[in-house]
Structures are given as structure tokens and as C-alpha cells.
Design a protein that fits this description.
The protein has 70 residues and is of the alpha+beta class. It has a domain of 26 residues. Helix content is 40%, strand content 29%. It has four helices and three strands. Strand 2 and strand 3 form a beta hairpin. The termini are far apart.
Length: 70
């Protein structure tokens, strides 16, 4: 419901599950989520350490844009 209210296409619970496949993909991937969880932050840090992907989280109005570059 939270994601629908702020028009974020990726639910906060899905956001952390997308990290590994996007970290392994070539190129830059982006998605918007309603909230950044500690689990998302942890997954991004672990993916960075394991495969060397770069990532960023930027707040945009009421959503957050997660960028992962594999």
C-alpha cells in the first residue's frame, strides 16, 4: 500500500531482493522504492564487497531511487 500511495513501482520488501540479480547484470539498473530498509542497505554493501558493483541511493520527493551498476 505504501508504494502505491507514493507511486513507487518497487515495494520495499522487493527492493532488497533485486540487489543480487542487478549487481550481476552488466550496465546500470535503476528502480524507485517507497522506503529504504536496513536489509536493502546491507544487501547493497554485501553485493559491493562480493562482485564490486557500485550503487547509490537518492531521495526524490517521497521515493528513493536505487542505482546499481554491475
Amino acid at each position: 500500500m505504501e508504494s502505491t500511495l507514493v507511486r513507487a513501482p518497487v515495494d520495499p520488501l522487493l527492493a532488497d531482493m533485486l540487489v543480487l540479480p542487478l549487481a550481476l547484470a552488466k550496465g546500470r539498473s535503476k528502480y524507485r522504492t517507497a522506503r529504504v530498509t536496513e536489509h536493502l542497505r546491507t544487501n547493497l554493501q554485501v553485493a559491493n564487497q562480493l562482485v564490486g558493483c557500485k550503487y547509490s541511493i537518492e531521495q526524490q520527493d517521497k521515493t528513493y531511487e536505487v542505482t546499481i551498476e554491475g
